[in-house]
Amino acid sequence: MGKINKPRHGSMAFWPRKRAGKQTPRIKFWPKVKEVTPLSIAGYKAGMTHILMVDDSDSPTKNLEVAVPVTVLEVPPVTVYGVRAYRKAYGGRQVSVDAYDGDEKLLKKLGVKKNGGIEKIKASADVVDVCLLVAANAGKTGFGKKSEDKMEVGVGGSDVKAKLDYCAGVLGKELKAGDVFKEGEFVDACSVTRGKGWQGAVKRFGVNMQRRKASGKRRHVGTLGPWHPAKVMYTVPMAGQMGYHVRTEINKRVMKIGENPAEINAKGGFPGYGLVKNPYIIVKGSVGGPVKRIVRLRKAARRTNEGKKPQINYVSLESKQG
Fold it and tell me: Could you give the C-alpha distances from 290 to 1, 183, 302, 317, in angstroms and in order?
């Protein structure tokens, strides 16, 4: 039998495969957008259902009614509690300057003090970028949360002064999903995946199982690498942590943004979550992580065109309890 050639199991693009530091993922890249607008918002995964829509793609089912699986995200309005400005310092480094304002009860819960430093930021001449500091209101959902999810949100636009004026205008106020995204738009979903604990090489990397007589073991790696270098390289598939990793799925289409939860609440509520009580976003396909986990939606970084608003004829409200 000839030699079987195939690529290695387990992409090295995701390395190291260790547990995420926190459940609120950090977004390290913001796309360039001409409009001065927030580039992200956060919601909580409620569950999945399906819709019937008119296919507006170029597939063979174009203009026909098709069933599409979707994920429902509950998106309570996020509170803008601060503005973060980055300015140049010695050696080309960037140093952040924060200004906090808004409800003192919320600021105390977040562990920050009101300083009203927005005027000081405006007076500074070396500001190179401005971001919003927001808190997701998990307490408004049905499951609640003891601590608020704090995060940094980028702002679109090329003029720093215009971005700073916008941030000053929304400081201490709330942002809704409709203020950030439009129906039919493509977004990137960033979340922490479902944790699976410590797993072996067969499940973790999909390596082939050994034959029955091979060294008395079956679910192990056949080789630990070459003779030289005389060590076990980090690229060798081995047992370890699986799941609970920060992952970003690109180009997820926003199917619907609504204010009335009765339009999407399944009979008996979503399993493990309950009833949606706040504004919501329906995203095409699946999203990483279990229910109740925070999901950050960002404007698409690899897609510039905005999709047209989909024509939805039906949203399934049947019970998901079975």
Answer: 44, 24, 26, 20
Whether the per-residue pLDDT at 1 is higher than 70: the answer is no
The CATH class, in words, for 77-175 is alpha beta
Hey, which bits of the chain come out as E strands?
40-54, 65-74, 78-88, 94-100, 127-136, 149-154, 174-175, 186-192, 198-199, 240-241, 246-258, 280-284, 294-299, 312-315
Task: State which amino acid sits at residue 169.
Answer: G
Q: How many CB atoms lie within 10 A of CB 21?
A: 10
pLDDT in tens, 64-76: 999 999 999 999 9
CATH of domain 41-75+182-195+243-322: 2.40.30.10
How far apart (Å, rounded) are the C-alpha atoms in residues 26 and 314?
Answer: 35
pLDDT at 92 over 70: no
Query: Using CA atoms, how far apart are residues 41 and 180, in angstroms rounded to an integer?
Result: 7
Label the pairing between strands 246-258 and 186-192: antiparallel
Domains 41-75+182-195+243-322 and 77-175 share a fold: no
CA 237, distance to chain mean position in Å, is 28
What are the structural domain ranges in the chain?
Answer: 41-75+182-195+243-322, 77-175, 197-223
Going by C-alpha positions, the residue among 29, 14, 48, 44 that lies closest to residue 245 is 14
| Average pLDDT score over residue span 243-248 | 97
